[in-house]
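Instructor's aside before we start: the two examples that follow are unrelated to each other. I chose them only because their records fit on one page, so don't look for a connection. First example below.
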Amino acid sequence: MPKRKKLTPGEEIARIRMPSPDEVLGVVEQMFGFNHLRVRCKDGHVRVCRIRGKIRKRLWVRENDLVVIRPWSVQSEKKGDVIYRYTRTQVGWLRRKGIWD
């Protein structure tokens, strides 16, 4: 597997991923293990989320990281999947734009 090219902060912000209407921003509160974690979402719900298999090895999620969550169709207020994790530079950009507070 080839190494990923490091992006400069300018390139990183230019390629920032915004949540779609069916996705929610949230902060990781606690890691449970086995790729499960507790996330406090922007809509006020606390969800138990799992890291999708597609990004499980590529994405290292830690507590207090800002993530994009896709709630499940069943039990949407309690469970969801982690879709994306923002870097520190991207979180700063989201705060300046007023998307995340």
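Example two begins here.
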Amino acid sequence: MHPADQDPPEPNPDEPVKIPITDTLDLHTFRPNEIGDLLPDYFGECIRHGILAVRVVHGKGTGTLRAGVHRLLNQLPEVESWQWPAGEQSGGWGATWVYLRPDAA
């Protein structure tokens, strides 16, 4: 079989997924039980890269993911403050702006 005709290998679910560090974190591909580890790790990397304002896209849906994100934001020491809804140009009710402490990394 020609290599181009082969299916790509299945990803290993135990292997960490590399996420580009930007000012936007889209949670649509993550399960609610993954955000407890994801958000602190991502925010720490953002601070190390000098990104102190992060738009977290949780979607509008039923609000379960949003509520979990907001609950976690209130507990994380690296979070200075957060704003929801994010504003119409930034995702409205489906996103939250998170402002990070520069000295928290």
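The chain has two helices and four strands.
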